[in-house]
Design brief:
- It is a single chain.
- 61% of the residues lie in helices and 15% in strands.
- The protein is rod-shaped.
- A three-stranded antiparallel beta sheet has the order 2-1-6, with no helix packed on it. A three-stranded antiparallel beta sheet has the order 3-4-5.
- It is an alpha+beta fold.
- It contains four helices and six strands; from the N terminus they run αββββββααα.
């Protein structure tokens, strides 16, 4: 009976041996890198976080291909081979790979913020140009208005019209005392003035919510730049 029991016991121990091996996790990145030796990890909506070599590592979820559990006795699966036309880059350490992935994500985010800020800036420049043109148009109208009133005052004074009545009449009749060319200038400027005022009102309506977003975008941009500086200095996650 003892001769039978001993071989059976040894066989059971050999079968149970792999179960005693420590369960670990292997992280495959879309870049082709592989991170091994992860004993535990936490997956959030945006990142995979784990501890490795005494430090905490956070990798954006969008850069992770898959996570596989294995025991310490299992060999790592070979990462996908890169395209033949591209030379294979050396695999960086796990922390460096995570930092590079996070840095790319922050740069892409910064680019999108700058594009939105550029859109707001272009609208602001367009509005500024329209207002400046409107100012010049009003000055031209005012100049011809002044010339017409002065000429009107002179003519009516020669006709013996009292001063108070001359003032009232010249406000209404100043165009009659301008040359045909000057009257055409005034009329064309009045048309342009109306066009500019309508364009400015429409653009201000479009720009109003964008200006509110601009403040938030500037704050967001400062935060992203700070995160990039911290990551490059090695003080980031």
């Amino acid at each position: 009976m003892k001769r039978v029991f001993l071989p059976v016991l040894l066989g059971l121990l050999l079968l149970a041996g792999p179960l005693w091996a420590q369960r670990q996790y292997r992280l495959y990145l879309k870049s082709g890198a592989t991170i091994e030796g992860i004993t535990e990890y936490e997956e959030t909506a945006t990142h995979v976080r784990f501890r490795l070599h005494g430090g905490e590592v956070a990798i954006p979820l969008e850069d992770v291909l898959r996570i596989e559990a294995y025991t310490a006795e299992e060999p790592a699966e070979a990462p996908p081979a890169p395209p033949a036309q591209e030379p294979e880059a050396p695999e960086p350490p796990a922390r460096e790979a995570a930092q590079q992935a996070e840095l790319r994500r922050l740069k892409d985010w910064l680019k999108k913020i700058d594009e939105r800020l550029k859109e707001v800036q272009d609208k602001e420049e367009e509005l500024k140009a329209l207002k400046e043109e409107l100012r010049r148009v009003r000055l031209r109208i005012e100049l011809k208005y002044k010339q017409g009133r002065e000429r009107c005052q002179q003519v009516l004074a020669q006709q013996g019209v009292p001063a108070p009545e001359r003032t009232v009449q010249c406000r209404r009749r100043y165009l009659q005392f301008l040359s045909p060319r000057d009257r055409g200038i005034v009329q064309s400027n009045f048309i342009r003035k109306a066009e500019l005022e309508a364009a400015i009102a429409e653009l201000e309506e479009v720009l109003s919510p964008l200006l509110q977003d601009k403040e938030e975008l500037l704050k967001e941009r400062a935060q992203v730049l700070q995160s990039i500086r911290e990551l490059r200095s090695g003080s980031g996650p």
